[in-house]
Structure formats: C-alpha cells, structure tokens
C-alpha cells in the first residue's frame, strides 16, 4: 500500500474545488459549491462540494468522497492509479510501491495491443480468407488503406487457437488471457479464440489505449456482431467509439451514429466527428462524456423502427445536457453509410445542415400515428402534440409557433389549442410542485435510515439517527473520540454501517491517523462509507458540541429495552434506576410493573 502520509499530502495539495471544477460547472452557494452530478442524469443540481472538509456528496445518487475518490470514479481508475494521477498533477514524486491492480490493467492493455497487431497482420496475410477480408473492407465498405490503418482494422482467421498461441508466445499466462475477453475455456477445459473469421475493429479510449474489440461476420450470418465482454479496462456504458479521433477535430458538432461501421464510413467521407455507443444503447454516462467535447450533437441513427426508438430514447438522455441536439432525417437509404454511397458526401452534408430539432422530430413522429381526416385522429394528435409542447425544453415562443402549425394541420382554432396548452402547463406545474415538496420532505436527516421492524419502530429509528449523528460529531471534532469510546455501547448501535464507522474512528485514534474521509475510505466498505459521507454532508453547516454528543449517547441508551438496561446491576442500583424512572414519568410504578 502507498504510505498514509503520502496519500494525505496528495489530497492536501489537490484542492477539491479546483480539481472537480475542471469536470463539473460549479456554482458557489455560501461555503459550498453545487452543480449537476457527473455520475447520474439529473435536471437540478444535487452534487455538492464542501471545500471546508475537501469532500463532495451527491444527494441524488449517493456518490461521495474526497478528491481521490472523485478522480477514481470519474476516470474509471483504480485507487492507486488515481493517487498517482493527482500526484503527477501537482508535481509530487510518484510512490515506489507497486500496485497489483495497476500492473494487471497494464498487462491487459498490452494483451489488447498485441491482439490488435495480430488482427492487422492477419488482414494483410497472403491467404484466401485474408483476401476475402480485405475485399470486405475495401470493396463492400469502400474504405481506403489510410482509413484501415487509422482505425487499426483487422481480421480474425477461422482458427480456434491462432490468437491464443500468438499471445502465449509473448509471455502471457492462461489466466491473463482468460481475463482479457479474447480467449475462453471450453467445457472440456480447452482454451480457444472468441473471435474467428470476422473483420475486427479495435475499441480505443480517449487516452489512446486499446481496451476492447468488435468483430463482424463477412456475410449476413448470425450473430452478425460479437463484442468484447466488460473487463477491468473496458466498461461499454462509459465508452464512445472513435472519440479518440473525433476529439482532435476543430469542429464541435459531433455526429452520433448507431454502429462502428457507420462511424468508420462517416470518417472516410470526411465527417471526422462521428462517434457511436459501444455495444449497447446510449447511456447517461456516454452523454456526459460527449458533452465534454461537443457543443452540438446530431443524432444519425438508422431509419428503421429500431433506429427511431433509439433516437427518441437518446433525446430523453440529452434533455438535461447543455449540448444542442438535432435529429438527422433522410429517405432513400436504411442508414447513413448507404445514403453516402448512393447520393454522395455533398448531399449528406446538406442533410446535416438541415437537421430537425427534437420537438420537430417528436411532432412528426406523433403526426404519423394518426389519421387526421377523422375527428378522433385529430383530437388524439392534438393531445399528444400538447404533451410534447409542454415539455420543459420547449420555449414559449416555440409553443406559439407550433400551436399555429397544429391549427393549420387539424383545422382547430389556434385559440382553442393555446387554451388547452395553458391548462396542460398549469397541471404540469402543479405536478412538478407536488413532486418537489415530496422530495424536500424526504430529505430530513433520518429520512433515508432503514431499520428492521423487529428493532423497535420509532425508538429504533431515533437510535439509528443518533448513531449517525454521533459519527458526524466525531468527524467534526476527533478530540471527542476517547469520550465517546468510554461511554458508547456497541450493541445499542443498530446500524452495522455505523458500528463499522465507529470502530474505524477508534482505530484512527489508536494509530494517530488523520480523521477524515480520505482515511475512512480505506477502512470502510462502500455502504458504510456512503453513510459516513452523508452524515458529514448533512451536518456541514452546524457545529455539533459535547452537549449534542451526550444527547446522542442518551438516545442510544434509552432505545435499549429496560430488561437490558438493568441487567447486571446491584440491588441498590436496580432500585435507584426505577426510582429515577418514576420521577421522569411522574407515575407510580414498581419494578414488577416494568414490562418490555
């Protein structure tokens, strides 16, 4: 492990506001900063940075931690790699400690690099099947040698052990090869190549590392595509194919395509900002990644039903993005690749410059569903169109323009349509207000605590809340740890996460370690750490004192059943306990009356 002192120094030198501000647009609010969370899709900011404690917390998804954890999560790195990246950022000498995870990642990237070389060599081999693969790329796809080299395209021959033996000769172990996603073990225990008799497309991340592969058959047999499984270096939901090339373009208008082949054809035709999602539907993480590079995104999916559904889904994901989004509409071809081959680059460029906005796309799709010659069809079309136009992303001016168009299309007066639209807007605002009030009511300090019914209902909930507040108090003032340690009884701490947190805090005191999220991150599991980070975030603006600590300790003690609270006491202590209990309750009660 990297020495604790080194880690703390890395955190001290990398101001969290400065680092996160490079990735997230932050707005100051008093002593904190807030912005849209980079780890989930949201409309209103729930991501908060706390400069005082050099920490962050998202009240939407629970992401939390220090500057190391942010870099780790944002860049999909291991802990040690994140520390090293931040150390390099501030010019600190890198620690000499070796890291098994970092070494394993490096070996996997080396396997992928060797595999890409193998596939490229096989494409250029003097064999009939290699010639067939070259014809596929050059004749069927119309690619130049330069495009083949730029994308590192290749071919996997019809050989169960070609790549396996190639990689073994380069010193990679069977275990490493199995974890690479390129080699599998059969039921009989034999290793074999996953990709066979397929043209190969390397998937390269924004840093230029080959992290996975996609393979396509040379005909229309099934399965048409096979993609690498997820590995420690490849997470398809966070990867965009060809972003490593597109990011070098001077243009900030990106074209989002449906598949690898569309992207490669686009680049060959000169559209160098084409990208696509990797082996999955577009995700919120990919949208956030794309928004780091693009000012405008044109959705260029296939014209079939699946492509239209993908377009509609993608528009929803871009709804909360700062990126301007438009939709490519074309006829006479099933996909952009076919359109370019049939009509040429210039015609496609004209299409790009005449793309429809999301509202246009949705209204056009809605109109196609109904027969406007019938009263029922017109009414249903108006109802669906108004639902679209009352969306939060449509401006009042656009609503007025589209209301006029709806009137012309349906023969209904614009005044009637505007009136119905205003009613729908009022109803939507009421729903939004109710939702906001409900969310606010759920944001109390104990609102997200869950304890079993068998633990004692409201009393248990109060005790669980007290234990979390106790942890927050110790984070604020570590000098109180010995005081709490001498008085708290762990069996009264109902949440396992808080038991784990308190033990970690006691360990910090024993080993004289800094009491902060950086230290606790290395001692707690994810669930316990998230609860500790939440406790700190909820109490960032209030000072918890010794008096508060005593109250939390008392609440924990009082949550225990009476039988447990008096067990092991002497006769005098037993009688004194119930004498005090009678005074507190103001009732006459004997020990025999006390019932759990």
Explain what the structure shows.
The protein is of the alpha+beta class. 52% of the residues lie in helices and 11% in strands. The chain is built from 27 helices and 16 strands. The strands form 4 sheets. A 5-stranded antiparallel sheet has the order 1-2-3-4-5, sandwiched between helices. Strands 12-14-13-15-16 form a 5-stranded mixed sheet, with helices on both faces. Strands 6-9-10-11 form a 4-stranded antiparallel sheet. Helix 13 (305-318) links the parallel strand 15 (296-300) and strand 16 (324-327). Helix 3 (67-75) crosses helix 4. The radius of gyration is 31 Å and the shape is flat. Residues 439-459 and 587-596 have low confidence and may be disordered.
Features of this protein?
single chain, 596 residues, alpha+beta, 5-stranded antiparallel β-sheet, 5-stranded mixed β-sheet, 16 strands, flat, disordered C terminus
